[in-house]
Queue: 2 jobs
Job 1
Amino acid sequence: MRAPGLALAALALLSCGSPRRGEPVAPPPRLGAEAQRGEAAFMAWCNECHPRGEAGLGPALNNKPMPGPLIAWQVRHGLGAMPAFPEETLPEPELAALVAYLKALRAGPAP
Amino acid sequence: MPQRRLALAALLPLLGGCYAVLPSAGGGQTAFEPPRRIDAADVAVPAGYRIEAVASGLTFPTNIAFDEAGALHVVESGYSYGEVWTAPRLLRIAADGTAEPVATGGRNGPWTGAVRHGGRWYIAEGGQGEGGRILRQEPDGRLTALVEGLPSLGDHHTDTLALGPDGWLYFGQGTATNSGVVGPDAAEFGWLHRHPDFHDTPCRDVTLSGANFTSHSPLEANRGAMVTTGPYKPYGTPARAGEAVPGRLPCNGAVLRIRPEGGPLELVAWGFRNPFGLAFAPDGALYVTDNAYDERGSRPVFGAGDLLWRVRPGQWHGWPDYSGSERLDDADRFGPPGGPAPPLLLRAPPNIPPAPAARLGVHSSSNGIDFSRSPRFGHVGEAFVAQFGDQAPMTGKVMAPVGYRVVRVDVATGTVHDFAANRGRENGPASWLGGGGLERPLGLRFSPDGDALYIADFGVMTMEGEAPAPRQGTGVVWRVSRTGG
């Protein structure tokens, strides 16, 4: 009975922790051309609730072990308190760029 | 690999459920034992910069100012949320950090800013006691009002001021309420008991949609009774569909201006909520920070981030029906979890609001602003913004502390970067982290030579349940400069 509890606790930590990514605290992430475009979409639609990918009103985004398609699905459809961002708000190319940016945030600073 | 994806997909509900399951974790939701510890080593700034504390022991410092000689001054508020009243003061800070009063006000704080012009000080007096005023200090030291009776008896006050390139004094005027409707939250702030008839005033004529809101009265006269309140109305007064509300000056949620020698008040732009910080960019454009809606009161709004505006003269900027250029009646975006969307209050918007220059954290309380003008400091043309930090759970629940730092904003792209923030695995005020760094940055200003950024750190303000508990004597002024000259 103890193992499932521990696993759930680990998942909760995994889901809700907030590793720092801010410029004073850590070197900036390496952004390719697509991720740079994604940064603009992030600042327009995501930064309010997840400042620089950290937790805020919502959970941290920069430590989620989610593959790109799942990230895109959640952005498109929303989940829990998070709203959906339909195509008229976030066209497909912008969504792809946003996913690239979120992956770069998760990867952290350039080596 | 497929199994891994399946497992990750199974995680999705957990990720989405964090907000519903976890309690609020705001930066003020902590205990504090004085004295405040101050240690600049606990604050991280980018490589090539250093930060140091230059004054401490201040009570509710709100802003920074300089005289013609470049001498540092700091504004002490004289009032804080939590209904704590002290004497508002303008202090000259000596090189050794000691403070000497230059001007002292009465029970009408919060003082929110000061500028020096033509050999005189001009001070924005918030006006929680008697209404807001713009004060001028005469040569004999007396304070006289250029304008008084500004509608500042509610949630928000007369905000800081800035001298425009045209020689006018520009200042912000906050709204009476969170989202246009006086509710029981006004009693929790304290002001509804003092001023039960106070409400918002529009700057231009508006026509109401007819939306009304019911609540249990917190007033002694009819405590517990169900009352109905409309927008731009006193508590307990309903609105009618199609009702016209005349606009007039002074009004709420506006940027206003007045000549330093006095004269009539002029409207610059309206439709803001609480335009606390004002600064002119190197290109001469006026920018303001705008504290966005809270999830509280009779018309709670969820998920609206603070905004940085490039002010469009004459335009309405969206309050009380938009967040940026988005309508609030989108339940998925702005309805509290499990609740309805905020109904629109106006039959038609005065204009479609412009897009903001940048979006900042929900509940970050983004306030003081200034632009870097010196290549020696760097980031020329970027806006630096002080973030006071959340007041959760009073303003709404958060999953982690928001704000408590200084950010820089590329106003051309809307990109926001941290500039000064406490070290540690998590973000938060020093009292929450257990360190000696930033508490609640509120005002900031570059030195006249542009070489240093001065930050007014309001000090410790914890939340005791829903009530703010500000601590006198814990304010600090920080200076950020380049290393190596």
Job 2
Amino acid sequence: MDWLIILTIGIPWLGAGLIWLLEERQSRLQHTLAVVFALAAGVAALAMLPSTTEQVELRIKIGSVFGDFTFVPDGLGVFLAVVATVVGSLAVIFSVDYMHGEAQLGRYYSLVLLFIGAMAGLVLADSLLLLFIFWEITALCSYSLISFYNDDPKAVEGGIKALIITQLGGIGLLVGALVIYAYQGDYQISRFLNEPEVLPTNMLSVMAFGCLIAAAAKSAQVPFHTWLPGAMEAPSPISALIHAATMVNAGVYLLARFYPAFEEVDGWTTAVISVGLLSAFLAALMALFATDLKRALAYSTISQLGYMVYAVGTGAIFASQFHLLSHAVFKALLFLSAGAVIHSVGTRDMRQMGGLGKQMPFMRAVFIVGALALAGLPFFNGFWSKELILEDGLHEGPVWAYVGMLAGAGITALYTFRMVWLVFYGERRGSGHIHEAGRLMKLSTGLLAAGTLTTWLLIGVFGEMLENTLIYHHLHVESAPTLLEEIITAPATLLALSVVAAGLLGWWFRAPLAGIAASFKPVGQAATSDFGFEWINRRVTDWTNAGANALRTTQTGSLNWNVFGIIGGLIVVLVILALGA
Amino acid sequence: MFEAPSIGDLNIAATLPATLLALGACIFLLVDLFVPKDRKYITALLAAAGLLTSLVLALLSLMNIIEFGSGETAFAGLYIADQFTDVVNVVVLFTGLMGVLVAYNYLDRIGKQRGEYYYLLLFTTVGVMFMGSAGDLVTVFVALELLSIPLYILSGFRWPQEQSEESALKYFILGAFSSGFLVYGIAMIYGATGTTEFRGIWLAVDEIIAQDLSSKYLLLLGAGLTLVGLGFKVAAVPFHMWTPDVYQGAPTSVVAYMSVAAKVGGFAALVRVFASGMSNFVLDGATAAAWQDTMWLIAALTMILGNLVAIVQTDLKRLFAYSSIAHAGYILTAVAAAGSAAVTNEAAQAVAIYLAAYAFTNIGVFAVIISVEKDDSSNTGLDSLRGMSRTQPLLAASMTLFMFSLTGIPLTAGFVGKWFVFKSAIAADLFPVAVIGVLTSLVSAYYYLRIVWLMYFEEGEPQVYIPWPLASAISLAVVGTLLLGIFPYLLQEMAQDIVLAFGR
């Protein structure tokens, strides 16, 4: 087991190093090596599946300063490592066609492989400090890959924005690690989950909310979501891998991992539910009004992550992680097929597309599979997991949140069909030659489409795995047939389905409903301007700059002022000391 | 009845690394008279050899392989030879060695290859060493002057260039001014406690607190004045204003050395005076020393101002002046933490660790600046690094590593330093300061990473000049930054025996 962990993290990192060393002109070899190493990592991760355990399986002693670096391959960690490496492999395979003939392939593949290894490490780590280190490595990879086309100022800006916002979140985690260490003496997450009482209540809530901030920043949740649409400047396989299927899930993972310790913290679950609800609902609206295909998908990712966060807030850990699995598969599929379309059309603007189904029948087919899963239609994987979340939400969560999530599901259906229609149906609005995607593009999207149709069958195995190895969560997961039957027969499902159907009908009868739609115009305007969050972002950076400039004027360079500063400082110091006496 | 101590009681051997260097500096001063003008490399070599010898001695003492002398005090309590002394010695001797390496060719280029440079540098180094080992306020003061006066001269080393002269004069006037505060503070402390020796002060403070004597007000005044005097040396806000002007005007090789050495000296003295001498100065109803609030307030201000103003700088030397102010803030956080009795030693260790980590990185940064600077001291703008990754991949990679380290990204020395500092702050219940520290680190990421971005993502053809001494200095800095980042226990092992609090 221990060597499997080392392999899962080490193989991609080794590959990253090797590819980095290759010459730029050996591009064939670079492609091949990347695929081989990514697949090997996937195999190593899959091999961990049969022997998940809650025990520490790998302990690296690194001296006393940072404690031991420990890894626990429990169900949650291994499952996410599998997602990271398998979707990673498919994204790399897709890249062989997508990045064909691009310059700087070595940098691209090295960073992708570095990311895959770090992501696997992040979910397997049991030392909070180690988790933080992997967390930062993934953020750096994400930054470098968003800015991959570094002569494009938009790409550079998007990268910096993503880095700064996720770094802000990283602080929450770092503070958490310091707090754990201060009271527990090491960084062991499992020890902390076993006995969260070692922290005094106020410190526990500092940590709980610190982790919430970290998670919201990483998982692009309101109000920290603004970086994700900007991150769409990255090459499409990167959007599929990092910004849909893996890294953005790290936040949800963090919340799920620490749920047993934080659930008793005052107001924490409500805060988590609110963050999830706001993200799910607002981002769905933004997706409805987006015109850029990848940005629409990005908003949809924020919205779907909102569902997972909401599920954690209601205590439905299993449902959230199951939706994470479904989402990783169908959203990677959507991003990759969208990437193939964009690669072919040469624009991301959906207003320039339309009618592409005729030229790209295969991509249309797989995209629709992904879209149906996103909309939550039976019996795709997105249906089962979303219904599970909504059902648990109805029973365990507050009603106001449930209503919001339900409305979100309707909007999801609406924007999904709008997207499919704008891209593949109607009349072609742009010009230029369209070619069908390459073979390897078809292979990877085809595999993901197959996954979208089938991963829900794993519900039983997956539930059992989590139940057995997440011992601090005290999960109780029903067997597969019971679960599936429950979902189908639950009234919540019917309710949700009718809302989805309403969304569908809304799109179908959009012409007659145009009048009503017009009255929603202000909403549309608010949604396209990102509900003002982007404005807040700008203001924060502007204010920081203005503050810096204002402070700069204190630096006059004149001796008299310097002396004045020293004397002023002395007076302040003496006043404070005198107040203390 | 006066009783002259015998030579043996003085325990001179314990001060070997420092006294040897002082002696060496005096001898080199004489030798330099006979070194012809075109062969000043001899003086440089002698200086380097002297520093290296002392460094080896200090390292041996640090690793407890050889203990010089017997016992921890020398010169009747004026000098303390403990683990903290060893750490300060090693850090500053290494810094001095790097200072010689980065200076040699730079001085050639600016046409100022003179022997004075090297022995002045040795004298400041000795000053820092004595500050770190001071057992008495009088030693602190004398060492401070020994540290400062050569630095004033070195700042003006590029005369008749106006900027350099201005920098020296400004540094001198303000330095003299704040030295006055220090002397006055020492006088007050002496007035309150009747002694200038730290152990004596510590005992007297216990007495003052126990009996609630009114001399505590005098002591408060003394603490405040001392804080101002030393705060100036470490460039804490609001005593920082000389820093950007001096850093910009002084020769870059001097700045490279001074930005670390002056800080090491200042912080060593701060820790000795406050953590060691007055950590028990806990007034009624308080849980920590009376000076803690002031200290953390200054730390917070320093971190905020330094990091914010650095954002808008366009000149590398000014930018790193503000960056060094910001880092002073982080170290001050640990000094403030030392005000809580239970954390005093841990915080002092954090200060030592941070200084060691900072030394490697910061000298490296200035070495890179030296490599792009033109002979007429122009071209130190941010633009001078533009596109460096194309023409100088190794140099750009080194600079990137330094930027990561200053930001505090894991696996670099800077992260380890920040880690220990924030840990001690949290242990001392200074949670808000730790949060300010972490948040301002985020702000710092903006301007540090902008430099990385300039080097990697922008077009440009920077001209660099890297002779081998400079290259080896940069390599040493890279190795140190990585080594301490990847094996942090090296630092911890080094610092864990630091015990500064008396009686515990």
